[in-house]
Write a structure and sequence with these properties.
Its EC number is 2.4.2.14. This protein has 18 helices and 23 strands. It folds into two domains: 236 residues, Aminohydrolase, N-terminal nucleophile (Ntn) domain (Glutamine Phosphoribosylpyrophosphate, subunit 1, domain 1, 4-Layer Sandwich); 201 residues, Rossmann fold. Helix content is 30%, strand content 24%. It is α+β, with helices and mostly antiparallel strands. The mean pLDDT is 94. The protein is globular, with a radius of gyration of 22 Å. Bound molecules: iron/sulfur cluster (SF4) and magnesium ion. The site of iron/sulfur cluster has 11 residues, from α8 and α17.
Length: 465
């Protein structure tokens, strides 16, 4: 998901709508904005579909007034899958002592089922099936005096991955979980302040990037400025390495590094680790493009747009059902026949999850007359589900969970298939020594199966690590 918040500007919701539009790649099912106006109080609009279709009309935007607003773009990782109910669309708003709060969450709470049971037993009435709603109920029950203190209280009970943007009547609040699994950055626009999942959404409103919110940090922003707290026991950070590979936009800066440059470096690593004699390097657009450029530069094999993407389709992976995903590949990607015919083609993609995309593309490219097809993948085999906010399917549906690299190659019927090594990926994100196996520098659970936070809800429902 993507989260965004602004304080201290006229009509903050307009900025939030623009920010969410720049974060649309992080969630396309639904979006919502909550604002606060000194006279009219909290106002909210939550809608299915794209930001551009919902938060551009005057009739919606004129109901979202005031100098303070937050927003969320959703892609379902918990709660109702496939058919998101409107009640699961964030931000969530709760009225309780001290005027209440609205909150938008990116990530996944790994003990949400246990917390929900406990809260329901103690009388909480849940409005949604979303894990994020627990935080509001925990805050409402807290005995602390101020809302930021109640939030600290609540979040100390929560396990898993969370980047949060929240607001009260006068404060904008940002938090990252102690491991800093999901991103969150701070920016400045005029006299106002901005919180955003990614820096690309600061650019769109002309905000200056100030810094990342630190893992385990809570910032409370008022008209007096930014106050920083560290409410959690300090832990060694474990940022999501897959943000570098796929999730973030290539024009964002993560951990001081350009995502684009990291992806290009992944391509260079791949070319060194898994060279092959061929005529063309083609990306599977858009997610494979920077890595394909890196592969081409390092190998000297010409880069070509052998597959053309229809710009009016969203991200395939985020289409919730299998049927739509299967259709999706053809709706979204088409082979550029004139380039491909008779050629030995290296296809570069960011990841193989279920193998749907790669299988379809291989068929399309052979139909177009390619002489050979070689897959090069910019991440290690995805053998484990993510429980921290990226919607990977159940383990059985992951190609790499049941097959070796050779078996996957045979299954996809391609001439060769190679994935970047975990060490190669770490080098590409700037860890010259590769992965520190004793204390990994990132979360890489979907590749390694080493979960930095125990997925306790999952274990309870039968998941075996
Ligand atoms: Fe990111 Fe993978 Fe960890 Fe999920 S499991 S947070 S996708 S690295
Ligand atoms: Mg892709």
């Amino acid at each position: 998901c993507g989260i965004f918040g602004v304080i201290g500007v006229d009509e903050a919701a307009n900025f939030v709508a623009l920010g969410l539009h720049a974060l649309q790649h992080r969630g396309q099912e639904a979006g919502g904005i909550v604002s606060h106006h000194p006279e009219h109080g909290f106002q909210s609009a939550r809608r299915f579909g794209y930001v551009r279709d919902n938060f551009t009309s005057q009739s919606v935007m004129e109901t979202l007034q005031g100098p303070l607003a937050i927003g969320h773009v959703r892609y379902s990782t918990t709660g109702s899958k496939g058919q998101t109910a409107i009640r699961d669309v964030q931000p969530f708003f709760g009225e309780f002592a001290m005027g209440g709060a609205a909150i938008a969450h990116n990530g996944n709470i790994t003990n949400a089922n246990a917390l929900r049971r406990e809260l329901i037993e103690r009388g909480s009435i849940f409005q949604s099936s979303s894990d994020s709603e627990c935080i509001i109920h925990l805050m409402a029950r807290s005995l602390q005096r101020t809302i930021p203190e109640r939030m600290e209280d609540a979040l100390r009970r929560v396990e898993g991955a969370f980047s949060i943007v929240a607001m009260t009547r006068t404060k904008l609040i940002g938090v990252r979980d102690p491991l800093g699994v999901r991103p969150l950055v701070l920016g400045q626009v005029g006299d106002g302040w901005v919180l955003s999942s990614e820096t690309c959404a600061l650019d769109i409103i002309g905000a200056t990037f100030i810094r990342e919110i630190a893992p385990g940090e809570m910032v409370v922003i008022t008209d007096k400025g930014v106050e920083s707290h560290f409410p959690f026991r300090p832990r060694k950070p474990r940022f999501c390495i897959f943000e570098h590979v796929y999730f973030s936009r290539p024009d964002s800066i993560l951990g001081g590094r350009s995502v684009y440059e990291t992806r290009e470096a992944i391509g260079r690593e791949l070319a060194a680790e898994a060279p092959v004699d061929a005529d063309l390097v083609c990306p599977v657009p858009d997610s494979g493009t920077p890595a394909a450029i890196g592969y081409s530069l390092a190998s000297g094999i010409p880069y070509a747009m052998g597959i053309i993407r229809n710009q009016y389709m969203g991200r395939t992976f985020i289409e919730p059902t299998e049927q739509i995903r299967n259709m999706g590949v053809r709706l979204k990607l088409n082979v550029n026949r004139a380039l491909i015919e008779g050629k030995r083609v290296i296809l570069v993609d960011d990841s193989v999850v279920r193998g749907t995309t790669s299988r379809k593309i291989k068929e399309m490219i052979l139909d177009a007359g390619a002489a050979e097809v070689h897959f090069r993948i910019a991440s290690p085999p995805t053998a484990w589900p993510c429980f921290y906010g990226v919607d990977t399917p159940q383990r059985e549906k992951l190609l790499a969970a049941t097959m070796s690299e050779e078996e996957m190659r045979d299954h996809l019927q391609v001439d060769s298939l190679r994935f970047i090594s975990l060490d190669g990926l770490y080098r590409a994100v700037g860890e010259a020594q590769g992965r520190n196996d004793k204390q990994p520098q990132y979360c890489d659970a979907c590749f390694s199966g080493e979960y930095p936070v125990e997925p306790s809800d999952q274990i309870e429902s039968g998941f075996e690590m």
